[in-house]
Every structure is written in structure tokens, then in C-alpha cells.
Amino acid sequence: MRYINIKEEIVSLPLNDNDNDNCLFHIEMAGISYCDGTYKIKRTNSSVYVFEFILSGQGTVVYNSEIFHPAAGDIYILHRGSNHVYYSDREDPWVKIWFNARGRLIKHLIEAYELGSVNHIEGLNLELLFNEMYRVIQSKKGGSEELLSRAAVLFHEIIQQIHLWVNQNKAVKSSEAFKIKHFLDLHLEDDISLQDLGRQIFRSPAQVIRLFKREFGKTPYEYLLEKRIQTAKLLLKNTNLMVKEIAFKLNFTDEHYFSNRFKAKTGMSPKKFRQMK
């Protein structure tokens, strides 16, 4: 069945009910959507995998407890079994090309390429592959088995490309996080803002926090505070600097704040630590 209306071009290849959970690979539906401000799709315990490439515009996806905002040039994957809702921006609505799929091969490839936790892929232009997938499903040439065989090859290539892109980005983001860490290590005694960190890697403050926490399990502020407390321990143990001098040297706002942070981290005041050591 194929139908076209003003908002969407859709090709549907329904399976028999008995085959839904046992098939190896099947593209259930594919299409091109010309969204408006009212466009919204919601699924609970989705029975299909959803793959969408954004040609233009922007919108929002709520996937289980995560929220992201795919825009032109992005891909998003909504895995089978997930709860999700996605909707187009009212002022700049999506135009997107997509397909819904099911089958054991999809589950196997997603696991093999470690994409089970991947949902939003930014800036990976697979427009040609998505268009070819839609063209193949649309043509229905050669019978369903030949058609799905060709679609499976295209699907595998899409998964491979996503895997390569995600891993390349992980390496870049890891490098950026270590660059931030190195900058913090060199500026323990300086007044550092998130804007300062962002300028090191040309990222926004929110992106700096996200990248750093993904790599090190803590925010840049938490890391900087830990390093300053470690340095304070060395200064208390090995110098005659007064507590207020150490607080000033390590850029704490005042002696009282420094003492409170030190005690929260070590269980004792700076004076008590110096006496014990």
C-alpha cells in the first residue's frame, strides 16, 4: 500500500501478524515527512525501530527520560521497546526522511556495533543512503524477498556509518575533555569560569560540563575543587603559610569558605589537618 498526502509520502509493507516477532529483517514503513507545527508522534513500548534523517528544520525528541533536539543534518534512532514522543518545531518544522524496521537482524547489528545506547547522531549526512532506502522500498521491484535483501544491505551500511561516526566523535570529545583537564591543572590558582574553559575547545559552557562529566564522572568545578583541596593539603603539610594565605593562593573567596570546603572533603578543618600531619 502506498499513499501520498500534503504532509507525507509514505510506503507501507505490512507483515502478517504471525510474522511480526519472528522475521529476520523487515522495513515496515518508509517515507518523507513535510512537517508543520502540529506534527507529533508518540509510542509506548515501541514495536519497531525508528531511523530518521532530518533534511531541514528542527524539533524535539523525548526518549524515555532523555530529551534532545535533532536539526538539519542529524539522525536519530528510537529503539524497539522504548517509550518516546517526538514533535516538530512550530517556527522551523522538520522535513525528514525515515523508515521503521523490525527483525532479529536489526537487533543483532545494533548490538554488534554497540549502538544500543545511541539515539542522537549529530552532523552525519546520510541523506543519500536514506534516500536510496526509500527508493528501494518505494520501487517494490523484484518481489519482496529481493527488495528486502537490497534494503538489508543498505541498512547494514547505515549502521556501519553511524558506528564509525560515533566512535570518531567519542575520540574527539575525549580529547577535548583532556584538554580542559590540562587547562585546569595549569590554572589551579587562577579565577576560571566556564566561559574560559569553553574558549579552549570552542564549546558552550553546557557542552563543556557534559563532555567533561562524560569522560571523568564529575563536573569541571568538582574536579577543580578536588585538585585545590589536594594542593591545600600539601601546603598545610609542607609550608608555614597561614590558612588565609592558602585560601587566597588557591582562589577561594575567603578563609571561612575555604575551611568549610576543606572540612567537607577531608572531615577536618585545615588547622586540625596541619596539627595531625
From TrEMBL:
Task: Work out whether the entry's keyword set contains DNA-binding.
Answer: yes
Under the heading InterPro entries, the entry gives: AraC-bd (IPR003313), Homeodomain-like_sf (IPR009057), HTH-like (IPR037923), HTH_AraC (IPR018060), HTH_AraC-typ_CS (IPR018062)
SUPFAM superfamilies in UniProt: Homeodomain-like, Regulatory protein AraC
Q: Which UniProt keywords apply?
A: DNA-binding, Transcription, Transcription regulation
Which interval of the chain is the signal sequence?
A: none
MF (Gene Ontology): DNA-binding transcription factor activity; sequence-specific DNA binding
Per UniProt, residues of the HTH araC/xylS-type domain are 178-276
**PANTHER family in the cross-refs:** ARAC-FAMILY TRANSCRIPTIONAL REGULATOR (PTHR43280), HTH-TYPE TRANSCRIPTIONAL REGULATOR EXSA (PTHR43280:SF2)
Name assigned to this protein: AraC family transcriptional regulator
